[in-house]
Amino acid sequence: QVQLVQSGTEVKKPGASVMVSCKASGYTFTDNYMHWVRQAPGQGLEWMGWINPNNGGINYAQNFQGRVTMTRDTSISTAYMELSRLSSDDTAVYYCTRHGDYFDYWGQGTLVTVSS
Amino acid sequence: QAGLTQPPSVSKDLRQTATFTCTGNSNNVGNEGAAWLQQHQGHPPKLLSYRNNNRPSGISERFSASRSGNTASLTITGLQPEDEADYYCSAWDSSLSAHVFGTGTKVTVL
Prior knowledge:
The complex is a heterodimer. Chain A is mainly beta. Chain A contains no helices and eleven strands. Chain A has strands spanning 3-6, 10-12, 18-25, 33-39, 45-51, 58-60, 68-73, 78-83, 92-100, 102-106, 110-114. By secondary structure, chain B is mostly beta strands. In chain B, strands 1, 3, 4, 7, 8 and 9 form a six-stranded mixed beta sheet that branches. Chain B has a three-stranded antiparallel beta sheet with strand order 2-6-5, with no helix packed on it. The longest helix of chain B has 4 residues, at 29-32. Chain B has one helix at 29-32, and strands spanning 9-12, 18-23, 35-39, 46-49, 63-68, 71-76, 85-93, 98-101, 105-109. Chain B is built from one helix and nine strands; from the N terminus they run ββαβββββββ. At the A-B interface, β5 and β10 of A face β8 of B.
């Protein structure tokens, strides 16, 4: 069965960077784009971008360009999302989601808290 | 980035039918249609339908989606207590080259 397992909770200071990982299993990792979506406390969903695990191609949402980097390691079927220059506005749950039949599988979410 | 517009909340009695909309434009909903996701508090979203009314396996037939022009709709028939959740629409926006989400609709089952 398809599973996306994300790394654990992070607490960061303003100005720092955070990297969240998403380990895929149960399917061929390179067959599907991986997207990242975040959700601030009590707020809606916000799309951050995608990575093509097959060739590393990326497409970042305009709101995050210059601050986000999405990478992957095909040897361990893992996608990564790094967000830099964090501020309190980046406090959110970050999800990876596979694009099969649209966003058909989701990770459990990683809470990133930015606080001084 | 511009998002899709949904009503903030819908309240209906148990076993009744709830329908709510998702309004976009010709670059997103009106182009490739919308997907719908359900999110219970503290859990990741779950895909209910995609490309207007295709349901993933395991999704109840009580959930049905449709589209008219730039507006997508989700209908939940025979409302159950477990249907209480937040519902989001989503679509690819060809002019933004980005996925956009709706503002979310909170469904309450009375």
